């Protein structure tokens, strides 16, 4: 029977495919496709873990004191039976061989299958044995984590899963680091139970240009592995086991979307100039150096935001050294072929924790509100050797092309002064070591209301500003942007947010300083005309969004847009007002007016 699940639309388009489930676990589980040549060695890892856990249980049983309750020995017998059951380990090995999952992913996937079978049992005693199964799986996963993984990423281009149908990912949540593992793999869309529109998992999904729905609550429990599902990234809808008529309708929409993308692709080399001759800079946001060619291909005129924190994630707490960072930044700079590259210093924390790091404050589960904790520049200033190491790598990379350094989440004069001291110290270290040091422009992100309200401090010390609207919205409205429970309150159209953005742009321009928007608002065509009316002439977004925004820029006349600004900013409903005024200028009736 077909069912519909509603969530939040975070990446547009339609995906149709078979579901691949990523089960949640109390143990962090890496999700990696392995190379076919390593399948049997990966199965060997699994069997070795099974043997190790079996030995543990046997030792525990052997060492039981004479007066131990008989139930305890019986429980160990149950655990021994489960860990040796082919329904667990044998079926997990099948996941490795057939789907190319790494061992940890295979075990957690099979746990999901077996757990559902336990839930459907009529006998309450047997149903309760699911807890024993979960404990056994947790031991298996911990044993696997101690061994050296043989898994390596597999691009998945020639994979055969028993059919030609595309695959879509279904999970309770997906870590941003896992999203990077999946970035160049076989998935055509994804669904998660949790998350918000601007959680970093959603941001990476948009950079992958695949349809996605987050905050779908029980999706990972309602959807079974290999179910046929449709992801409607425009409506935030997931359809499980659709009827033939519905399936054909969505396939038609897929074809229409592909045609529209083809039309937009023709604009990629057209200069972004408004009807009245205002030149607009459309830049790209990237996560890794390998993303730079896609930015060029999309027609971006530079990188407006290189999120360097993705170099630090999914490494087991082993941070990249100066040479590794220098090499990554250099490759990004050289790949952009002389166009400017803006690199943000590490923005770890909130929904981007570092695994295996001793700083427990960075972990989701260790703090009451990670968004207000030790993150971004706060963490950098608390780890001066790490911060200077990154700064040195950035200055060295600047000898290979134009580099701008962007500092995230600054909020006070004290933080500004400390940051500038570290920068000066890093430059002295390079000079003392006889290493080259390039010239850079230094910028500050405006993403905390305190920064927007004390802008003269920032204009005094920095060459340019970049407005991070994702965090600016969450901090202005006191909403955790990764929490689906309050996602409906996250409002980029809130008058307070728009007024902070508009005043920042106006004051920066008045001071003769460059200003851009690098948050998700920049890549949303619904905001293009409004941001142009504020005086914004530099937008930074995911490469996949450049063409859509460019189309709006080419059709805009900033002389006609400017008078609309005050009316929108001080409206009770800025979104409706903006749509109405733009429709009047275009000579068409807006949906808002039609409803009225």
Task: Summarize this structure as a short list of keywords or feature phrases.
46% helix; 596 residues; alpha/beta; 25 helices; single chain; eight-stranded parallel sheet; eight-stranded mixed sheet
Fraction in helix? 40-55%
Would you tell me the overall average pLDDT? Answer: 86
> Helical element count?
25
Question: Which secondary-structure class do the elements indicate?
Answer: alpha/beta
Number of extended strands:
16
Uncertain parts:
153-163, 356-366, 587-596
As a whole number of angstroms, the C-alpha radius of gyration is: 26 Å
Shape: globular
Let me know the largest β-sheet.
Answer: 8 strands, mixed
For the termini, the CA-CA separation is 38 Å
Strand content: 5-15%
Order of neighbouring strands in the sheet with most strands:
1-8-7-3-4-5-6-2
Question: How does this structure look, described?
Answer:
With 596 residues, the chain is α/β, with parallel strands linked by helices. The protein is 46% helix and 13% strand. Strands 1-8-7-3-4-5-6-2 form an 8-stranded mixed β-sheet. Strand 7 (228-232) and strand 8 (237-240) form a beta hairpin. Helix 14 (384-397) packs across helix 15. The chain is globular and about 80 Å long.
């Amino acid at each position: 029977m077909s069912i519909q699940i509603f969530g939040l639309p975070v990446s547009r388009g339609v995906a149709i495919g078979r579901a691949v489930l990523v089960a949640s676990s109390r143990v962090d589980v890496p999700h990696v496709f392995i190379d076919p040549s390593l399948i049997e060695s990966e199965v060997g890892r699994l069997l070795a873990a099974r043997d190790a856990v079996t030995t543990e249980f046997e030792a525990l049983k052997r060492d039981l004191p004479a007066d131990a309750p008989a139930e305890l020995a019986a429980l160990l017998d149950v655990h021994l039976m489960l860990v040796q059951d082919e329904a667990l380990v044998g079926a997990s090995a099948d996941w490795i061989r057939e789907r190319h999952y790494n061992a940890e992913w295979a075990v957690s996937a099979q746990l999901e299958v077996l757990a559902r079978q336990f839930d459907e049992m009529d006998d309450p005693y047997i149903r309760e044995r699911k807890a024993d199964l979960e404990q056994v799986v947790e031991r298996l996963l911990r044993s696997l984590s101690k061994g050296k993984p043989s898994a390596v990423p597999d691009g998945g281009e020639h994979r055969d899963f028993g059919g030609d149908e595309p695959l879509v990912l279904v999970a309770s949540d997906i870590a941003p680091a896992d999203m990077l593992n999946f970035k160049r793999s076989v998935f055509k869309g994804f669904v998660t139970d949790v998350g918000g529109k601007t959680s970093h998992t959603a941001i990476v999904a948009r950079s992958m240009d695949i349809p996605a729905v987050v905050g779908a609550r029980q999706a990972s429990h309602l959807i079974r592995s290999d179910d046929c599902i449709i992801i409607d990234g425009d409506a935030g809808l997931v359809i499980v086991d659709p009827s033939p008529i519905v399936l054909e309708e969505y396939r038609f929409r897929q074809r229409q979307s592909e045609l529209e993308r083809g039309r937009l692709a023709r604009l990629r080399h057209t200069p972004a100039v408004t009807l009245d001759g205002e030149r607009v800079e459309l830049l790209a946001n990237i996560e890794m150096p390998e993303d730079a060619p896609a930015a060029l291909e999309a027609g971006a005129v530079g990188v407006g935001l290189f999120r360097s924190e993705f170099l630090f994630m999914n490494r087991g707490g082993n941070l990249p050294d100066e040479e590794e960072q220098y090499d990554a930044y250099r490759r990004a700079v050289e790949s952009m072929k002389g166009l400017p590259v803006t690199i943000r210093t590490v923005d770890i924390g909130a929904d981007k924790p570092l695994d295996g790091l001793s700083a427990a404050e960075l972990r989701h589960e260790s703090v009451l509100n990670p968004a207000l904790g030790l993150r971004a520049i706060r963490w950098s200033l608390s780890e001066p050797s790490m911060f200077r190491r990154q700064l040195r790598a950035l200055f060295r990379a600047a000898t290979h092309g134009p580099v701008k350094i962007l500092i995230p989440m600054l909020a006070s004069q004290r933080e500004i002064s400390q940051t500038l001291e570290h920068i000066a110290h890093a430059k002295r270290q390079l000079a003392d070591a006889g290493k080259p040091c390039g010239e850079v422009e230094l910028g500050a992100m405006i993403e905390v209301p305190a920064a927007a309200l004390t802008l003269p401090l920032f204009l005094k010390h920095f060459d340019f500003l970049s407005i991070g609207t994702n965090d600016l919205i969450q901090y202005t409205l006191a909403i955790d942007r990764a929490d689906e429970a309050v996602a409906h309150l996250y409002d980029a159209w809130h008058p307070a947010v728009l007024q902070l953005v508009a005043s920042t742009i106006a004051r920066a321009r008045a001071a003769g300083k460059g200003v851009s928007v690098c948050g998700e608002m920049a890549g949303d065509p619904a905001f293009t005309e409004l941001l142009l009316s504020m005086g914004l002439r530099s937008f930074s977004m995911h490469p996949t969004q450049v063409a859509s925004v460019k189309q709006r820029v080419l059709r805009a006349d900033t002389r006609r847009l400017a008078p609309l600004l005050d009316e929108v900013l001080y409206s009770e409903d800025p979104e409706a007002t903006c749509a109405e005024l733009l429709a009047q200028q275009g000579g068409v009736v807006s949906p808002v007016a039609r409803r009225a």
